User: Fold this.
Amino acid sequence: MDNSGELVKSMHASAVKANECLSLLQTAFTRNSSGPLTECREKLVYIRKAETESTIKIAELLRSNQDLKPYLSIPNALLRMGDHIEKLVGIIQKKNREAVLFSDRAISEITFLLQKLAEILKTIADLLIINNPVLIRHVEESGAEIENKTLEYATLHEERLIEGLCHPIASPLFLAMLNSIHDIAWDAKEIASKFAQQG
Assistant:
């Protein structure tokens, strides 16, 4: 059980670091600063190493401990989240480096989504420690809300673009951010669903 406890603790730490990354991305995005992006990348290195190791460990531990079954796909989900966060880092870095201007509306929409995502990843970290139906439902509902919002914001953005209210140069960056945010929310829901199936 010590090994399984260490495994869960490692996945929890990765979820916490992913949550911290989202706060750093928000700072980098709103303040046009590069320091938080470097800090986020350091956390992503930890997540990749820890969850690659977790994938191997969990396969071994499952032979003797079937209680770990809901955790089986979580390392891969955390690795995918890390990849999506890495994409966000690259987009924000490009936005800041090239001084690409986002409209006030686009800034508020991305900021709102990053805050909601950070909240979901905090709940995921808690869920890894405590399998609780309230936490599962919160992740599933909040994840679905983010997915819907990204689609809604993409549609509204297209309308603003047609009306000349958005900078065309910012458009691909904004839409790429929405895609990555949508994908992180989807992975969070996948993690919650594994615990829901176990309940």
Notes: The two ends are 21 Å apart (CA to CA). The helical segments are 2-31, 35-61, 74-97, 104-129, 133-162, 171-198. The chain has a mean pLDDT of 92. The chain is about 85% helix and 0% strand.
